[in-house]
Specification:
The structure is a single chain. The protein has one domain (3-69). The chain has 1 helix and 7 strands, in the order H-E-E-E-E-E-E-E. The protein has one helix at residues 3-6; strands at 11-21, 26-34, 38-39, 42-43, 46-51, 56-58, 65-69. The chain has a 5-stranded antiparallel beta sheet, with no helix packed on it.
Length: 70
């Protein structure tokens, strides 16, 4: 089951993103965003990357990783 099936509110940003760890591991993925996500008392977009291998992760969970659009 794909995570996008359970979260139709996540929108495809349409841009590929490169994720590079401090140790030099690189992964390419595609950006998705949820523009109605609440964090604390503030409403703000939450970004998620869908990787080519099928894994996905929220951007804010990647402490120590660098992101750039490719």
């Amino acid at each position: 089951m794909d995570w996008r099936d359970d979260f139709p509110e996540w929108k495809d940003d349409g841009r590929p993103v490169s994720v590079i760890s401090k140790s030099g591991i690189e992964a390419i993925g595609k950006l998705y965003f949820d523009d109605v996500t609440f964090t604390g008392e503030d409403e703000m977009p939450l970004w998620r990357v869908q990787f080519e291998n099928g894994d996905s992760a929220d951007l804010w969970t990647f402490q120590g990783w660098k992101f750039c659009l490719v």
